[in-house]
Amino acid sequence: MANRDVELLAVGAGPSNLALAVALEELAPGLARDSVLLERDEEVSWQRGMLLPEALSQVSFLKDLVTLRNPRSRFSFLNYLHATNRLNEFVNMGSFVPYRVELADYLKWTADSLSLVDLQRGRECLDITPVWTDGTLTGWDTRVADGETIRSRYLVVGAGRDARIPDLLRTVDQDRVIHSTQYLPRIAKLRKDLPYRVAVIGAGQSAAELFGAVQRDLPECKPTMVMRSIGLNYYESSKFNNELFFPSHVDKFFDARPEAREQMLKEMHHTNYSGLAPGTMDALYRSIYLDRLSGRSRLNMVTMSDITDARDEGDEIVLELTDRRTGETQELRTDLVLLGTGFSPEMPRMVQEIAKSIGLSEIKVTRDYRLEIDQPATAAVYLQGVNEATHGIADSLLSVLAPRANDILQDILAHRGETPEVPPQPTSDADTADTADPVVATR
């Protein structure tokens, strides 16, 4: 028996579901009042493990939770800057990309600004089971860690992908293995005066940031970067490539033949993965250059090498590295392994379990992100941020947050036989002459 019934339950208060919550409040206030957003952590954040002070977002501030859907929204990044008295400083900086800590604070500010959607922090979803009525799927029972069960007709999963941890590194002491998603809280617990030998695994932005951060956070450490590639590369970016991150490209990608989708994903891989931002690349190379110049030989980089074995030996982890050019092996003895290995391309465990619970042999979604269910159903489930294979590379990024939230909401409203309650908008400058600009209006 459910302890509470709601119309819509969203799991995970990350950017995807926050964008949906904003769309609900602006376009469907009635539904918003019957919606719950669950967040397992005590506060809303974003990439909390890698909120390095100097790290920049790779996405324009205009691709926030709402602007591409409603530029006049009070939930925009610009209004956040105005509300926190930082608008002038940000404009003066002359950058389209905010710092990562700034973007995380914007998401927290948005969460605190919600007034209709019931955002519940510190509540972890343990499992989700389908509700059947006379052979028809009519809802979902979501069990929360505190024992409550919430029943909903609509379910939106936006909890993100699972961290990718190489199988070999799952067999060693996990107290010495830190994925980038856990870097800051776990590194803070270590003594700063010990000469740790650190292996940083990966060749992308996260690995490079870990390599730089650990030099500051553990000043006496000796880090070694290990990668399968021949070296580090910039992201492949151009204004032409960036058009493939436009919301309008989603339709083209979704309608493309499977072989065309595969080609596009392959060619777009280096626009977001296995690459570094120019600033990160330059800073990393300068640090290695200065290390060589000083003769310290503190920093090391091993390229074209696979980890072919890993074992615990006393108080250290021993990695066997096999050179892909020669086949020769060497041992790398470490005290700490940092993983800049990103996220698993597989569907998250939660999504797989939902699909299994209703007997689906394949996870497929519609253009509007609704899970295709091959049985009678009056309920529905939507997947956010995990549909690269059908919706393009931008699906796991911030680029399409606002339009995707709108797509999902419009599909839910159509499924319920409703139309959105669109708030009136000024139609000319004259209409706003005596009113506050909605972009900078405070709540």
From TrEMBL:
GO molecular function terms noted in the UniProt entry: L-lysine 6-monooxygenase (NADPH) activity
Cofactors (names): FAD
Swiss-Prot/TrEMBL catalytic activity: L-lysine + NADPH + O2 = N(6)-hydroxy-L-lysine + NADP(+) + H2O
Keywords, ordered alphabetically: FAD, Flavoprotein, Monooxygenase, NADP, Oxidoreductase
Pathway noted in the entry: Siderophore biosynthesis
KW Oxidoreductase (keyword) present: yes
Bias (Low complexity): 427-443
One GO term of the biological process aspect: intracellular iron ion homeostasis
EC number in record: 1.14.13.59
Region Disordered, residue ranges: 417-443
Broadest EC class assigned to this enzyme: oxidoreductase
UniProt family annotation: Belongs to the lysine N(6)-hydroxylase/L-ornithine N(5)-oxygenase family.
Name of this protein: L-lysine N6-monooxygenase MbtG
Lineage: Bacteria, Bacillati, Actinomycetota, Actinomycetes, Pseudonocardiales
